[in-house]
Each structure stands twice: as C-alpha cells, then as structure tokens.
Amino acid sequence: MRDEHEALDLSADWADISQGLRKDLGQQLHSQWIKPIQLGGFCKETGTLDLHLPTEFSANWVADRFSDRLSLAWKIARPDIRNVRISVQPGRRAPQGLRFDGRGRGGDAVPAAQPGDALGMSAAELGGLGPNGLGMASIGLDPSLTFTTFVSGSANVLASNAAQRMAATETPQFAPLYLKAATGQGKTHLLHAIGHAYLQAHPRARIFYCSAERFMVEFVQALRQNQTIEFKTRLRGFDLLLVDDIQFIIGKASAQEELLYTIDALLAEGKRLVFAADRAPQALDGVEQRLLSRLSMGLVADIQPADIDLRRTILEHRLQRFSPTHVPADVVEFLARTINRNVRELVGGLNKLIAYAQLTGQAVSLQLAEEQLTDILSANRRRITIDEIQRTVCQFYRVDRTEMSSKRRARAVVRPRQVAMYLAKVLTPRSYPEIGRKFGGRDHSTVIHAVRLIEDLRTRDADMDGDVRSLLRQLES
Fold first, then answer.
1. Structural domain boundaries in the chain
2. Bridge partners for 48 per DSSP
3. Distances in Å between the alpha carbon of 435 and those of 123, 198, 409, 431, 438?
4. What is the CA radius of gyration of the chain?
5. pLDDT in tens, 428-466
C-alpha cells in the first residue's frame, strides 16, 4: 500500500511538472519529447528518480536539452529527489530491432536480425511468454491501455468500434484506419488497445508501434548506414503497423515517400495499418498528395471532445481502481463539468486529488478539489461573464433583464436573481462583494445567502436542480 501511495504521489507531481513544461516549451515540443516520458523507479537511498523514453534517440535528445530543467522541476516538487536519470525503457529491445549494421551499442558483433527478433517477435516469443502473458512492454505497448479500460460514449463510438474491428480475427472492411482527435481524447489509447487485442487474436503476429518521429529517425539511420533495403524488408514484414502523431512527419520528403511505399506494400498483402493524428489527413500541411490520399482512403474516424456524460462515466470507471477511497458525487460532478478540455487532464486531476487525500489523510471534498486543482481548473474554465449569466437566466425564466438589479421582492423575480448569483459564484472567479455590485449594489451577505439557498434547494428540489443543470449546459456550451 505504501508503494502504491508513493507511485500515486509521483504520478500527481509528474502531471503538474509536465503541464508546466507544456506551457514553457509549447504544445509541439512538449508532445514530441516530454509527453512520451514514463516514470520509472525511485531510489530513496540515493534520491534518484528514473525517467524512461521509448527510444535511445529520444532519451539522448531529452537528456541533452531538458535534463537540467527536469531535475530542477523535480527537486522543487519533491526535495527528496536529488538526481534525475533519463534512459531507455528497461527491457525495450525495439530500438535495436531496426539496426542493420550488425553491431551492438558498444560495437560488439550481434547476430543479424531474424524474423523472430526484437520488433519482429510474435507475442508468444516475447520474453519467452505465452499468449496469456504477453510481453507487451518489449514492443512499446502500455499494458494499461486496452479496450477494457477504454470508456466509450457518443463522442468516440465510431473510433472505438472501428478500432475493435481492426483488431478482430475477421479482415476489416476498411484499410487503413486513421484516428483523428485533439490532444488527450483517447487516440493513443486506442492504438495501444488495437495492438493488445490483435496479439491476443493472432499470437504469432508481428506488430510495429511507433511515433512518426521514431519512424523518421530510424529511416534516416538506415540511410546513413546504407541499409535502406534491409529497413524496407524488415518494415514490410509486419502484420500490423501502428503509427502515432503522424502530423510530425510533415516536410520529411524521403520519409514520406518510404511511408507511402510501405502502406502500398502492406495493403497489397492484406496487412493492417492504423494511423493517429491531431488533425484530419487533408489538414496535414507539407504532406505529399499521394500520401494524403493513402491516409484517407480507408476510414477516418473522428474522436470528438468528451461530453459531460462521457466525462462522468470515465470518472466513475476510474474510481473503481481507487476503492475504498470515497469521492462524493458532487466532487465527481464538479470535475466532470469543470475539466472539459480533454480526458487526460480529467483523469490526471482525479489522480492528483485522490493521491493528495490518501497521503494527507484528508477526506475528498469539493473544497479540497478547488484548492488542489487550481491550475487545471483555471485552464479549463471558459471565461463566462456575470452579464452573460444574467442574460441567460433572464431568457430561461422569461423575466426582464432589469430585474437582476431591481429592488422588487416578488418570488417570480427573486428566485431567478438568486439562481443568477449562485451561477456567478460557481462559474466566475468574482468575489461575493463583486457579484453583489453587479446585482444592483447588493451587500455580499445577500449573495452568500442566495448561494447557500440554491445549493440547499438543489439537494431537495428536483425541479430546481434540473433548472440549474440546464443553465449550466447552456452557459458552458
């Protein structure tokens, strides 16, 4: 249990550090180099934390350029971390699988790559494991990203069903599959899930999962070593090709051409291909037209941002992993409604909140969520104004806008005014006195009374709760 708490704590700290680096470095650099980092072990005796990347190239690149920044960020977050070590994921043989010079890392001779080695290994051969103990990490698949852990809803049902069909025993009716989604909406999860399910259905299959960046790096290495023929032969021997972040192949003419030929060769042999990107094929600037036509010739499955219902379901599904930690329904509703930019931030916020509660012994509450998730909540909140709230409430209850500032005490006027005050406190960063001034110069105590009254009515009156929910949907849409 103690190790589990330690892992949760590290994960929560990494979520904060990663978010800060994204703001400093920009979305593109962060997605390409920081996002792939996986937390490794932490040695308390030496104060050393291991950070792992999928390839030797990316590990060296990040170590050269971001080592100091990562070390400083971790030391600030966790004083007990004195050193940060950046390396390739332990046991990951994949980067060497595309080396064709017959030399090991230290220059020692190694056997020539055979169909059952490294990237070409089947599930049953990986690490000597059988089909029920797949060595997924050896081929770059995250064991936690499966169809079982993927939550489907109206926003992603097409992509989810298409991904499952791509991994099934039957030959899919469309090829290739192209998953298009903004950051953090689940496209990478589906890529990994396809790989897991395909290996379970085809235990002897050979699959290749990589990012477009890695594809380009390996191809350039093959060019420099005059090993392009071996590279092509090897690459086209896979049964399933999974390529993430295809938008990063922009402008690399030689790599684009090789990917084009690889797609044609694999499709001609009935092999399966899945690509993922943050934009549609037609929106990829700097990509050759022939490659665009190949990427869009199968099925382009769009994953829309998760709606409020799907966000609730994701949180409830995730909470099953944290039993017996109790998270009140109002906290789940608050997170689902407020953290709406992407699923990754939503899950990260929940993880951080539960980790903090477990490590400090505090109960999870709405106040704790607001205190500990300030950065995430601020980034997700749309700037809704009090004027906008007043206008929407008046339209909903069919009262004149002037009633928001009037002194009238009729119930038909007072209740909409109190609802507007409540929404102003929930949806804006304004203080009670500031809200009071926008409602005809009312005292802050009047606003406090209105907020508490509506909160109480929502728990006792289904109609009031329904009205508030409807207004929240209108204002946040």
1. 1-90, 94-99+115-303, 307-381, 386-476
2. 43, 83
3. 61, 56, 19, 6, 5
4. 26
5. 878 899 999 999 999 999 999 999 999 999 989 888 998
